[in-house]
Amino acid sequence: MAKREFKAESKKLLDMVINSIYSKREVFLRELISNASDAIDKIYYRALTDDHLTFNQSDYYIKIDPNKDTRTLKVIDTGIGMTKEELESNLGTIARSGSFDFKNENELKDGYDIIGQFGVGFYAAFMVADTVTVMTKSLDSDEAYKWESQGSDGYTIETIDKKEPGTEIILEIKENTEDENYDEYLEEYRLKQIVKKYSDFIRYPIKMDVTESKLKEGTEDEYEDVIEEQTINSMVPIWKKNKSELTDEDYENFYNEKHYGYDKPLKHIHINVDGTVRYNAILYIPENAPYNYYTKEYEKGLELYSNGVLIMEKCADLLPDYFSFVKGMVDSEDLSLNISREMLQHDRQLKIIAKNINKKIKTQLLSILRDDREKYEKFYASFGQQLKFGVYSDYGMNKELLQDLLLFYSSKEKKLVTLEEYVSRMPEDQKYIYYATGDSNERIEKLPQTEMVAEKGYEILYFTDEIDEFAIKMLMNYKEKEFKSVSSGDLGIEEDENKESEEKEEENKDLFASMKEILADKVKDVRVSKRLRSHPVCLTAEGEISIEMEKVINAMPDDQQIKADKVLEINVNHDVFQSLQNAYENDKEKLSLYTNLLYNQALLIEGLPVSDPVEFTNDICKVMVP
Ligand SMILES: Nc1ncnc2c1ncn2[C@@H]1O[C@H](COP(=O)(O)OP(=O)(O)OP(=O)(O)O)[C@@H](O)[C@H]1O
């Protein structure tokens, strides 16, 4: 029999399909199953307009049949089949898609959607097979044909005997090589796995004879291998079902089946959009952060399906970083895929979907926050930090979108509050939103710097995450109220104290100058405190860099070191101040001892290390034994 050659360009293209278009060999099965599904769809469409043809869905199926002895894998379908001419033109010309033409000729819109469009998928079979044989009988022909090819050297066509319309594709699976294991494409479990991964939602049953070990009849502990034909795909995707038919349990099962997480999702979001870009999505907000969530290893992304066929396992472009914890999938019929179906040709549709999804996630989070505070706090414990990173990163580009999702611990409420709640409670004379930073709520509670603001009756937000102050600096203000650290120079409330402290400052300016000299470049200034009530000293920072920021940045692994401009504030109403004055008058050595002691105490209160602990304890001893 004379061999027909593929067209010259086709040879090159075939080589490309086999070697470079697809990144994973396993997708050959996805391609053959998609073709089989298209072939059945075509009968369905025909039946819509042809009165002589009835489409009885249960008659149509796809079957996968591996055989280790003959080293063959068959993919059989009960679809429309191909005439001799169609065999010639569809399989003899690479990049010629009969399915694409069919779609155009029939002006197909919704419902059943033909998958094929490029005319290359079939040849993916050569990635795993030396010889590919196609036995086919068209619904429109009495003759059946066999097409066979070993790849680039062409193909043969001959007449065969086949009664029922449909197509049977036989792959002679390659021998294993050093680098490649082809045997796996003959293993039931592996084939099942590939079908589940890519073709689970093909709407016709994909059948396979599966070997199961079963209890032998009449025995109690004897097992035997039983071969059973099973449907291995789920067929109807949950996201195409009506929301009213689905229970929370259905959504939870899908979450677990898909291994989106091992926890129970906190919330699911089911989206069906029929707008400019049509898509369905099921998204989940998990309850717990995966163990690697806050590391570089964590990969964000949603599964992306095109017409129920998996295209990408983790499509990162669908999620912004600040919502990277969201799991789930998107299925759209409107994506322009590239030839390998592994990437999108241009991402306009994807951008629209991403934008839409982003909005929905925010709305959902806000509604949990409003309606189920306990649930939201659980979520926030896992992912609050990520939201705060989101406010801070990209130069604060997303701060407005995220600000209402933030929670901080409140000095007054003794629980987490939103910025909105804080601002709505602010007394009229309060100018700023006050915050204090520290390692824990308990430590912040005891910070001397909070005394004055607390005495004034104002609420203070406690920042215990390293990112907090950075995020707030980026936010700058909320509802036109500026954020103010309780440690900052001007607290906006010290009017009454101003005059008195100015006088004290003036009276004691030589004492403060001496103390500043003793501490040298450790502090920028020594001053009368307006904020202290019961404590003798505290450290505050002047300028943009706070003491907390100095701590955070200096603890980072790179060599970057920064220094806050520290000010040692002295409570002139505290008895200790008298001792300072006495020492200044009578004993300069004592003044030096006291100054260093007070400075080191202030460091400890701030959670900063004292530079010489031995000297510090010696100083204490000196005070104890005058
Ligand atoms: N099982 C089948 N039954 C009937 N026709 C088939 C079958 N497999 C392939 N064909 C025909 O061969 C054509 C080429 O198939 P191929 O998989 O190479 O491309 P495609 O499915 O059209 O596009 P894509 O590259 O996007 O998958 C199809 O368009 C279809 O007309």
UniProtKB/TrEMBL annotation:
Which compartments does it reside in? Cytoplasm
GO cellular component, as recorded: cytoplasm
Region of interest: Disordered: 489-508
Using the UniProt annotation, give all residue ranges assigned to the region (A): 1-341
Give the matching SUPFAM superfamilies.
Answer: ATPase domain of HSP90 chaperone/DNA topoisomerase II/histidine kinase (SSF55874), HSP90 C-terminal domain (SSF110942), Ribosomal protein S5 domain 2-like (SSF54211)
A GO term, aspect molecular function: ATP hydrolysis activity
Keyword Repeat recorded:
no
Q: Where is the composition biased (Acidic residues)?
A: 492-505
- The protein's superkingdom reads Bacteria
Q: List residues binding ATP.
A: 31, 35, 77, 82, 90, 97-98, 117-122, 167, 341
Region described as C? 552-626
Keywords of this protein's UniProt record, alphabetized?
Answer: ATP-binding, Chaperone, Cytoplasm, Nucleotide-binding, Stress response
Q: Which InterPro entries match?
A: HATPase_C_sf (IPR036890), HSP90_C (IPR037196), Hsp90_fam (IPR001404), Hsp90_N (IPR020575), Ribosomal_Su5_D2-typ_SF (IPR020568)
Q: Which Pfam families match?
A: HATPase_c_3 (PF13589), HSP90 (PF00183)
Q: What does this protein do?
A: Molecular chaperone. Has ATPase activity.
Assembly information from the UniProt record: Homodimer.
**Which family does the entry's similarity section mention?**
Belongs to the heat shock protein 90 family.
Q: Which HAMAP family match?
A: HSP90 (MF_00505)
What is the protein's given name?
Answer: Chaperone protein HtpG
Say which species the protein is native to. Oceanobacillus halophilus
Query: Gene name, please?
Result: htpG
